[in-house]
Amino acid sequence: MAAQGFDAWWPHHRLSVHGFGWDTLRRIPGILSIRQRLAHRLFDAPPQVFVGIDAPDFNLHLEERLRQRGIRTVHYVCPSVWAWRAERLPRLQRYADLMLCVFPFEPAWLAERGIRASFVGHPLAAAIPATPDRAGARLRLGLPPESTVLAVLPGSRESEIRHLAPRFLACARIVQQAWGPVHVILPAVPQLEPQIRRIASQEPPVPHLTIVSGQSHAVLAACDVALVASGTATLEAALFQCPMVIAYAMSPLSWRIMQGKRLQPWVGLPNILSGEFVVPELLQEQATPQALAKAVLAWLDAHACSPDQITRLRQGFRALHATLLQDTPTLASQAIAEMLGA
């Protein structure tokens, strides 16, 4: 948006927190201050419509205050109330004039609960090619064309890197010991790259490890298997038709709280959208380096010994891609225009 000329009043990373630990608590005052100042700016110059993009804990409260002032509100990306934290549903009912949904099952689910919603497709489906260029991606990343490549994506938040990066790197070492030469490539969010490199320097060395700044799409296009932190990156990996292992870990307190709010047996988007465990998930205590390595090696074995398993997985991911691929800008614009005209 900044590249298109939008004026960023605050940097987006100020809102990038996760979980219920100290890292979140210490940043709450600053986030609340931003929300208060933003509300007053919008009160002083009321827009015709406010579009809150994701960040439900930030935006829903803001949308409530705006609606009280007669400002129409749209929330883009339905919070995953169908998966966990269902207590947010009444807030959606009260605060959003329109919900723009990125998954096709969401509008009917929301309509049953009195919320106006429209499926507009998922932007990632348009950003990712239907046929990934594996050879081209390996060339850009300097990877040997016929090598075995493991992608390691430990997350995009400080807390995720802290909890997952050491486990993922230890997993990579075990995979290399069991499988032989494996190129390990880790795409780092630029602002977290120093933290990742520091962790890597403190761990036993991982042979053939390459840490790159950004370039996650090239990495997913190039790899044979991906080890991915649960989140949007799992959907990206699916759209790149990538066999994967999904993992997650957080502080014990955050884990206990979140476990009490889960509504589905899956946490990874490929499994949620498929309605079954099409790829393995290893969470919290299960996400040991040994268990992660065993799951990664199972995919490498499938590449070598059971290619039909890989083919079926990729066919399912291609079908998912086709479903999510829509003319998102046009559909979103039309839905907002219809809401304003109602």
Automatic annotation (TrEMBL):
Pfam families (UniProt xref): LpxB
Molecular function as annotated in GO: lipid-A-disaccharide synthase activity; phospholipid binding
A GO cellular-component term linked to this record: membrane
EC number: 2.4.1.182
EC class: transferase
Entries under InterPro entries matching the protein: Glyco_trans_19 (IPR003835)
UniProt keyword terms in alphabetical order: Glycosyltransferase, Lipid A biosynthesis, Lipid biosynthesis, Lipid metabolism, Transferase
One of the GO biological process terms: lipid A biosynthetic process
Catalysed reactions listed for this entry: a lipid X + a UDP-2-N,3-O-bis[(3R)-3-hydroxyacyl]-alpha-D-glucosamine = a lipid A disaccharide + UDP + H(+)
Function field: Condensation of UDP-2,3-diacylglucosamine and 2,3-diacylglucosamine-1-phosphate to form lipid A disaccharide, a precursor of lipid A, a phosphorylated glycolipid that anchors the lipopolysaccharide to the outer membrane of the cell.
Membership in a protein family: Belongs to the LpxB family.
Name by which UniProt lists this protein: Lipid-A-disaccharide synthase
Organism: Candidatus Symbiobacter mobilis CR
Phylogenetic lineage: Bacteria, Pseudomonadati, Pseudomonadota, Betaproteobacteria, Burkholderiales
